Amino acid sequence: MTKRYLVTVGVFGFLAVIFGTIGNHVLKDKLITANLESFQTGVQYMMYHTLALLALSFGHKMFSKSFLNVVYVLFFVGIVLFSFGLIIQSTTEYTALGLGPMSFLIPMGGLSFLAGWVYIIYMGLNFKHTKSHSKHHHSRSSSSSSSNSSEE
């Protein structure tokens, strides 16, 4: 699971930086203000949710695999539909690419983001931190710190 998370985070983070750079250096003078703002919103939400996925990738020992998978899918779908949708739609005048009737998918991506955050709230409200969980975590972290240094 961690490998999938990290690869996804790496790809989306890389693309967010690339798109941000394109927006600031290439599209800045080519798009009307409203489209440039939509482009930047798509890039920002991609980065926000990429960082949220990165944070979740460190929770694999604390949270259930099914919880992490649900949030992963919701944020992944949100990035693809909302962020990429805004990026494509806002650059139509420059690239001649567009979503046309598929533009309804952009708000669906926004709803996917919201569903992911609501699911995190739900899991937070139902989270039970036990002493045995904490004890296990502390003993594991002290014994794994020496083994982690040899793996790096």
Keywords:
elongated, 6 helices, about 150 residues, mainly alpha
How is this structure best described in words?
The protein has 152 residues and is mostly helical. It has one domain (2-138). Helix content is 82%, strand content 0%. It contains six helices and no strands. The chain has helices at 2-27, 33-57, 65-90, 92-95, 105-126, 131-151. Helix 1 (2-27) runs parallel beside helix 3.
Note the topology.
Elements: H1 2-27, H2 33-57, H3 65-90, H4 92-95, H5 105-126, H6 131-151
From the N-terminal CA to the C-terminal CA, the straight-line distance is: 19 Å
Number of separate strands: 0
Average the pLDDT over all residues and give the rounded result.
86
3D shape: elongated
| Major sheet description | none
Number of helices: 6
Task: Please provide a brief summary of the model.
The chain has 152 residues and is mainly alpha-helical. The protein is built from six helices and no strands.
